[in-house]
Amino acid sequence: MQKLIFTNEVGQALAGLVGELNPAGVFFLADSNTRPIAESLNAFGAKVIEIPAGDENKNLQTLASVWEVLSTSGATRRSLLVNVGGGMVTDLGGFAAASFKRGIRFINVATTLLGAVDAAVGGKTGVNFLHFKNEIGAFAPADAVIISTRYFSTLPAEELRSGFAEMLKHGLISSGETYRRLLAFDIADADLEALLPLLEENVKVKEHIVEIDPREQGIRKALNLGHTAGHAFESLAMERRRPIPHGFAVAHGLLVEMVLSNLLLGFPSAELHAVAALLREAYAMEPVRCGDYDALIELMRHDKKNSSRGVINFTLLNRPGDPVIDSTADEDTIRAALDIYRELLGQ
Ligand SMILES: NC(=O)c1ccc[n+]([C@@H]2O[C@H](COP(=O)([O-])OP(=O)(O)OC[C@H]3O[C@@H](n4cnc5c(N)ncnc54)[C@H](O)[C@@H]3O)[C@@H](O)[C@H]2O)c1
Ligand SMILES: [Zn+2]
User: Fold this and answer.
1) Of the residues 125, 154, 183, which one is the last residue of a structural domain?
2) CA distance 38 to 11
3) What is the distance in A from the centroid of ligand 1 to the CA of 318?
C-alpha cells in the first residue's frame, strides 16, 4: 500500500524515503510551473524531466517524451521517479513509471490541493487519448505520496477553492464532524498551516475507501458524490466554450445531489442552506436556467458511471457520513431538485 506522509518539511521527508527505497538512480518529473519546486528538492544530482503544463499535454506524445528521456539517460528497473506537480504530472508520471520497463518505483509530491486530496493518492494513473479523459492508464499506487500545503501559496485562488470542493465531498461521505470542520474553515482566506491537519484527515478518508475497494466495485463509488450533476455542469460549460474549474462544477453538483438526497432520502434540509451560502460566497458560476434542464439531464444520462441505458445513477446521502451508492432518480425528481437548487442560490 502507498505510504502517505503529511509534512511541510518536504525535502527532509523525500531524503528519508529515497534512503529507504535505495534506488539505483533518481529522476524528477515536473511541468513548466512546478520545475522550480522540483529543483529545490533535488538534493540527489538527479535529472529533472520537464513537460509542458496543462491538461491538453497529458497525452501520449508527452508520455513518450518521458519514456525517451528515461531510456536515453540510462534509467533501469531499480530507478525511482519523483513526480512533482498537480494531477496532470502525477497522473502522467505515475503511468510513465508503471509502464517503463514494466514498472519502476515512484513517489508523488503533490503541489496542488486537487492533487493532494485526490489525484496523487488512490493509484489511478493515465493520460487522455483521442477526445477521452484518462482513456489509457493503469491502477498503480505510488510507493509514497508526500502531502504538504507549503506550495499552495502560489496557486491561483480559484485552484485552491476547486480542490477544496473535493475535500467537502470527502467530509460529506465520511462524517458530520469532518464536514462541519470544513464548513468552518475559511477557504477564501486560507491559513495553509491550519489546512494541513484538515487535509490529513481528509486524504485518509479517500485512502480508507480505496483500500477496501480499489477497483470501484462498491463503496469507492461513494467518491462519485456530486459528480453526476457536477460532470453535467462541467460538460455544459465546456460545450458553451466557457469552461469552469472541475471543483466548481463539483461544488454545485454536491448541492444538487444534496437536494436530491433530501427529496428521496430525507437528508436534513438545514444542511442545504449552509452549502448554498458557501457556494454563493466562493463558487460563483453562471446561473442555471430552466432552458438548461434538458441538456443537463441528457448529459447525466450519458455519464459513464451509469450501469444501464437511460437510468441515471447517483451517490446520495441519508445524512452527512452516511452515503448510499447506486441510487437513481427519475427525470421529474431531477427537475424538481434543479428548481430547489436555483432557489437556494437565489437564482
Ligand atoms: N488519478 C486520479 O484519481 C485523479 C483524480 C482527480 C483528478 N485527476 C486529474 O488531475 C488533473 C487535474 O489536477 P490539477 O488541478 O492539479 O491540475 P494540473 O496538474 O494541471 O495543475 C493546474 C495548474 O497549476 C499549476 N501548478 C501546479 N502546482 C502549482 C503551484 N504549487 N503553484 C502554482 N501553480 C501550480 C500547474 O502547472 C497547472 O498549470 C486532471 O488531469 C485530472 O484528470 C486525477
Ligand atoms: Zn472530482
Assistant:
1) 154
2) 10
3) 32
Q: Residue 149 CA: which ligand is closest?
A: 1
Q: 12: CA distance to ligand 2 center in Å?
A: 30
Q: Does the pLDDT of residue 303 top 90, yes or no?
A: no
The mean pLDDT of the chain is: 95
Q: Provide the pLDDT for residue 138.
A: 96
Helical residues (DSSP H) of the chain, grouped into ranges: 10-21, 35-41, 60-72, 87-99, 113-114, 157-174, 176-184, 192-212, 227-239, 246-265, 270-282, 293-301, 331-344
Q: Measured between alpha carbons, how far is 343 from 347 in angstroms, rounded to an integer?
A: 6
pLDDT band for position 58 (cuts 50, 70, 90): very high
Do 114 and 224 have their domain in common? no
Is 115 near ligand 1, meaning CB less than 6 Å away? Answer: yes
Residue 34 CB less than 6 A away from ligand 1: yes
**Residue for grid cell 441505458:** 309
Same domain, 165 and 148: no
pLDDT for the residue numbered 293: 98
Ligand 1 pocket, residue 57 CB under 6 Å: no
Q: Tens of pLDDT along 207-258? A: 999 999 988 889 999 999 999 999 999 999 999 999 999 999 999 999 999 9
- Closest Cα to atom 6 of ligand 1: 119
CB-ligand 1 contact for 126 (6 Å cutoff): no
Enumerate the H helices of 157-307 as residue ranges: 157-174, 176-184, 192-212, 227-239, 246-265, 270-282, 293-301
Residues 119 and 206: beta-carbon distance below 8 Å: no
Distance 44 CA to ligand 2 centre (A): 34
* pLDDT for the residue numbered 306: 75
127, 154, 181 - which closes a domain: 154
122 lines ligand 1 (CB under 6 A): yes
- Is the pLDDT at 200 greater than 90? The verdict is yes
Ligand 1 close to Cβ of residue 86 (< 6 A): yes
Establish whether residue 143 lines the binding site of ligand 1, counting it when its CB lies within 6 angstroms of any ligand atom.
Answer: no
pTM of the model: 0.94
**% of residues, the chain, pLDDT over 70:** 99
CATH number at residue 109: 3.40.50.1970
